[in-house]
Fold:
Amino acid sequence: MTRSGGVFDFPVKEQRIEELDKESVSPGFWDDQQDAQKKMQELSSLRESVELWNGMYQRAADAAEMVELAEDDPGLLTELEQEANAITAEFDRREFALALGGEHDRGAAIFSIHAGAGGTEAQDWTQMLMRMYLRWAEQHKYKTVITDMTEGEEAGIKSVTVEVDGEYAYGYLKAEKGTHRLVRLSPFDSGNRRHTSFAKVEVMPVLDEDIEVEIDPKDIQIEVFLSGGAGGQNVQKNATAVRIRHLPSGIIVTCQNERSQVQNKESAMKVLRGKLYEIEQERLAEEKARLKGQNVDANFGAQIRSYVLHPYQMVKDLRTDAETGNTTAVLDGDIDMFIEAWLKTQVGEEE
Structure:
């Protein structure tokens, strides 16, 4: 276990701790309380991280010393084996925690699902995905609010936007960005033929107000229209729904769940800020991959998972090869195995 480099770069972390320690006792540190609190939280987090990994490093070093003693004392062999297993399990747990160390991972998330080509088939698949994520959120005791939804002409939904509030909601849901593919016998086909449907999932963090995402008022057009019933049970049948068009990017955001036009505008702006932030992150990821010479697709719209219901039962994540034959459980919200498998592949990727 190394003490330097990548996510385990203790010298860098210890240097940052020293800098924050000095800054925290300097005159005027608490003049900007919001900034001071953020730095104190960073200091606390860094100290906790270094102490935890230092402890594991020491345990590993002690175990290495026990190897020589175990050669002459068979009784120590069992003890050494138990300690090695415990260290490995703790390392795996800590390694996974590192994957949830992103700037916004601990906060709330906004996710949208959009039906791909295929009409009613794709719209029904979009509704199935919405149910899957709502069930997943319920299992994790997250609060969800559908802020906008457009129903299909015959069945299903064309698109939906949901806000998910709870600790690490964004950290987990960011693993779901991309295109999801369904293969099944169509319930809408009189010939009972097999169909392939696609839906795209977008995930954005709910940003703090102090995070800079520049939106020039001149760059947006705001329309007010009559709310429909799809946005939620409490939608009012009057002109409270809001549609915001961001002219430079072409992004269009709507919200019709809240009771007032002001609330809907605030919710729509929240989604717009998140979308613009994610676009910038994608651009940076693509530039980073280009500079590293990596032949990777940094586009969040790429196909990530295949759900096959016929001629066999299988859900497979194309990024990690994680798979299961229990398609019913997956569509009922049991998707943690896919999320965790992807998150583990991201450890160290931010360096």
